[in-house]
Design a protein that fits this description.
This protein has 215 residues and is mostly beta strands. The protein contains one helix and twelve strands. Strands 1-2-3-4-5-6-7-8-9-10-11-12 form a twelve-stranded antiparallel barrel. The protein is globular. The relative contact order is 0.22. The N terminus is likely disordered.
Length: 215
């Protein structure tokens, strides 16, 4: 499903999140890539002034069945020579088509330190928009923080979203993206909870289906 791949890529828009898990700008959602779907995402992030680069990451995602996904992330930033490769994963524990409600658990990466941390998240589709809420355990600070987010898709091509994660080390963010047949382009911004300049994030994403392309 194109929307699932789009959301997977949009989740990488943050200085606090590198893994290309299915989610929003900063936070995870219960979305998964889909069976046999692959995602390749080239991520740039930094300060908008003079396009100063803080981090460059290559993200991937692979859908194994309709409830499980796994990703391999490679940090190309020179400051991360000892932490270049990390995994992420997600499993949907509960899914109700009738109530349009899902619950998932997983692990994702923090790009400031490129270390994984676990989370639990619930997503609800209200028709007009979707809402998401959960908690995550951050390995560096050893704190458990909560997060919330919303998103809306228009004409199956445009998506807008916003989210917030508690804690002075985290961010609020917003962004939008356009989805083509096998590619996506996303632009986002994030604002530190502790104050400071906003960060810009750009993603160029390619998607496909192993079944469609012969494995």
């Amino acid at each position: 499903m194109v929307l699932a791949a789009m959301v997977a890529a949009a989740s990488c828009w943050s200085l606090t999140c590198s893994a290309c898990y299915s989610g929003l700008i900063l936070i995870p959602t219960t979305d998964v890539a889909g069976a046999y779907v692959w995602v390749l995402d080239v991520q740039w992030q930094g300060y908008s002034k003079a396009l100063y680069t803080e981090q460059v990451v290559l993200n991937t995602e692979f859908g194994l069945g309709d409830r499980f996904e796994i990703g391999i992330d490679v940090n190309a930033t020179s400051d991360f020579a000892d932490r270049r490769v990390r995994l992420n994963a997600k499993y949907v524990l509960f899914r109700s088509e009738q109530h349009k409600l899902e619950l998932a658990v997983g692990t994702q990466n923090m790009s400031e330190t490129f270390t994984p941390f676990p989370y639990v998240v619930a997503s609800k589709d209200w028709g007009l928009l979707r809402t998401h809420a959960g908690v995550q355990r951050e390995s560096e600070s050893r704190r458990t923080n909560w997060f919330v987010g919303v998103d809306r898709t228009f004409d199956e091509r445009w998506q807008v979203m916003a989210d917030y994660t508690s804690g002075s080390e985290n961010y609020a963010s917003a962004g939008a993206g356009y989805v083509g047949k096998h590619w996506q382009l996303f632009l986002g911004a994030q604002w530190p909870n502790a104050g400071g300049p906003a960060l810009a994030v750009i993603h160029v994403i390619f998607t496909g289906d192993f079944r469609r392309h012969g494995g």
